[in-house]
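Bumping with the actual sequence this time:
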Amino acid sequence: MPKRTRPEPAEPDAFSEAEFRVWRGFLNTHRTVSDELNRRLERAHDLTLLHYGVLITLVTEPDRRLRMTQLAERVLTSPSGMTRAVARLAEEGLVERDQDPDDRRSFVVRLTPPGLVRLREAQVTHHACVRELLFAGLTEDDLRRLGAIYDRSSVCTGTS
């Protein structure tokens, strides 16, 4: 093993042990749950997690419709990724994509009745998977505390 002749620079502003455990746990949990959700949704409903995200976001809107740019922001994907996802969902008749009558440069995506049916079927799989992988072993009190922690996070409060 070669000898070091110069000292290595120290890690700047390193995480505390507690911060590192939380960060590592968050990353592992996110990856595990997301990957398994994607596998189960594709296998059971022919939907990726991104496609599920589009449908679940649209169903929460009063008219079940959003501009493509707003949809991409809410689903946390790029505009090009949203374009591909909406094209696939539209091919299956789960959404419709039309020019925005208020801005002809924009498109509006609307959830269709078959899209709502597919979403409701997929929600059974989604909820079961999240309960199994994320909520199992947590009490109602744990869930309330965890929810409160997320509510205080600067990401959730918009103060980051």
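The tokens above came from a reply further down the thread. The longest strand covers residues 103-111.
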